[in-house]
Specification:
Blueprint lengths: L1 H19 L13 E8 L2 E4 L3 E2 L4 E8 L5 E6 L12 H7 L2 E6 L4 E7 L10 E3 L5 H4 L2 E3 L1 E2 L2
Parallel strand pairs: 1-4, 3-10
Antiparallel strand pairs: 1-2, 4-7, 5-6, 5-8, 8-9
Bound molecules: copper (II) ion (CU).
């Protein structure tokens, strides 16, 4: 009986430890990046933080809760829809940071620090898979001065 309890408790601890991954709980010593939860759905992007401080490292935890694959591009400013005809490669080069191909249910992380040159700018989080930006997969954010 005692042994059985031990098993239950250790299983529970393991689950807790697993749940703690990807959240800000646990040890957070000074200087640890600020976690930003980004949720992508069909077809919307939400972020737990939308105003960023230059020089601060952000740990983006991006989860695809949709039923189709998505990506996350952090663009220096709103580039509008791809209908303008900009080739995909140029978009990739222009992106400050990006997570490509996030499958349904998948979570990927990305660390990014906005440089001081980005102060007072208005970047945009976007998914540029065909039709997704047009469907609403864009989120305007701002970088404080
Ligand atoms: Cu998408």
């Amino acid at each position: 009986m005692k042994q059985r309890w031990f098993l239950v408790v250790s299983t529970f601890s393991l689950l807790l430890a697993l749940a703690a991954c990807g959240t800000t709980t646990g040890n957070t010593p000074a200087g640890t990046p600020t976690t930003v939860q980004v949720t992508e759905t069909d077809f919307k992007i939400d972020a737990s933080v939308t105003t960023f401080t230059p020089g601060t490292t952000y740990h983006f935890v991006v989860t695809n809760k949709g039923k189709t694959a998505h990506e996350l591009m952090i663009m220096p400013k709103s580039e509008g829809s791809m209908m303008g005809g900009m080739p995909m490669g140029d978009m990739d080069k222009m992106a400050l940071a990006s997570i490509e191909n996030l499958n349904p249910g998948e979570t990927k992380t990305l660390d990014y620090t906005f440089p001081s040159s980005a102060a007072s700018s208005h970047p945009e989080f976007a998914c540029y898979l065909p039709g997704h930006y047009e469907a609403g997969m864009k989120l305007g954010v701002s970088v404080s001065s």
